[in-house]
Amino acid sequence: MGEATREESTCIAQRLLAVAELYTRHQGALADMEWCLVDYCAATAADVSAVQNISHARAVGQVQFACALAYRLPAVAKVFVRGTIDFRMVSTIINRTDNVDDALMPAVDEAIARHCEKWMKLSRPKLRDRVDQWVAKFDPAGVRVPPKVEQNRYFDVDEAAPGMAFASGHLRAADGAALDARLEALAATVCEHDPRSRNQRRADAAGALSRLETALVCECGRQDCTAGASPADATAGSTVVIHVLAEQGTLDGSSDNPGYLRGFGILPAESVRAVAQTATLKPLTVPSGVRADPGYRPSVKTKEFLAWRDLTCRWPGCDKPVDNCDVDHTVAYPVGPTHPSNTKHYCRIHHLIKTFCGWNDQQLPDGTIVLTSPTGYTCTTEAHGAALFPTLATPTGDLDLPPADPDPARIAMMPRRKQTRAQDRRERINAERRERTELIAEQQRQHQAWLAANYKPPPF
């Protein structure tokens, strides 16, 4: 186990240092990208996400982490490569030294590298204290300041088990109290014979709240129910549209194949049939051998098919839903027509990377994409919707098109940033260093005030 643990740490270190080396090579191969929307970090992350099959956001974080390890903490990196410290420790060191002045960083790096092997058994809080101690010795203003709680507000609704969603968040206390009271009030609008538990009614009340309904539909099934809401009332206030894809057999009960709720994943057959009772049903046709749409923009029919066939961005590891994606021509228009065999979805960042950074893609009639990076790495992605519903993988027609020809000179047309990534980082660090300096000064003022009030010099 010990040997495997050390080998694991060594492999992680080697992977990260390879990412940092790839970043350096991108800087040498791609000119003047610092101010581009797809900068060196994003261009490197495109390779990383494709090779490791991870999301672009995770790849960007890995590039930044790798560069910090390789170029700000080379001494710690050497210890990491030996396998005597692990990723948990390295991530703590990188995070806690992020605000250290560049001129003082080599001394901090050497000091931590000399001692970090002895810290492996420490808990996370104790490890953080040891790193902060060395930062404070060399650069007191570089000690990290805890983030303000209010800055971490969020509210997410994510997919959970099939047919279910998971909601979580940090709200302002007043907003949380109002939401809690509203859910409680909605949950209380059913009669006493409703079979659901209080928690189940509150969960269902969240759906009613999202549809602007003023009451829950009671599920007691009694003729003498005293609750006021009826199924007809339940849809009266609805202003939100959701889209579900399912086979006809699932709807008519001849099949129990699940459906798909866009953005939340698989929806069990019984849930599909329940939703269908009050839904507008619309058949989805698979275009086959059709003529291309006139012009650059796809028709409503083509766009609808592409959305269900792809479901997400087609870049390896990217799960951005099609609602947040662009329709990309594999072979650029007008040489490449607006046709289902030549169009698919890329999120904006991957659309820009494909267009401006030398990537080449080929599209097969069933929607499969063969993507080749500027370094020669090739990967294949199938459309997520077509994988779940094989009918959507029906070939839409062979097109006799020339291969796409990436033009490196097009990078001059890349959208520009208002600030570089380095400027954003420096702004954050300067603000946090100022805050730490003010905290230190306030502590010193309080100490001096305490001495003035309590210290009595010894008599002579």
Brief characterization of the structure:
The protein is mainly alpha-helical and 460 residues long. Helix content is 45%, strand content 9%.
Which features does this protein show?
mainly alpha, about 450 residues, HNH_nuc, about 45% helix, 16 helices, about 10% strand, 10 strands, 4 domains, DUF222 domain-containing protein, globular, single chain
Question: What order do the helices and strands come in, and which of them pair?
Answer:
Layout: H1 2-29, H2 40-52, H3 56-72, H4 74-82, H5 87-96, H6 105-115, H7 124-138, E1 154-159, E2 165-170, H8 173-187, H9 198-210, H10 231-234, E3 244-245, H11 248-252, E4 259-261, E5 265-267, H12 269-276, H13 300-310, E6 325-329, E7 343-347, H14 348-356, E8 360-363, E9 369-372, E10 378-381, H15 384-388, H16 421-454
Antiparallel strand pairs: 1-2, 3-4, 4-5, 6-7, 8-9, 9-10
Explain what this protein looks like in three dimensions.
- By secondary structure, the chain is mostly helical.
- It folds into four domains: 2-149, no CATH class; 172-234, no CATH class; 244-276, no CATH class; 306-404, no CATH class.
- Helix content is 45%, strand content 9%.
- The protein has 16 helices and ten strands.
- Strands 3-4-5 form a three-stranded antiparallel β-sheet. It has a three-stranded antiparallel β-sheet with strand order 8-9-10, with no helix packed on it. A two-stranded antiparallel sheet has the order 1-2.
- Helix 2 (40-52) crosses helix 3 (56-72) and helix 6 (105-115) crosses helix 7.
- The longest helix is centred in the last third of the chain and has 34 residues, at 421-454.
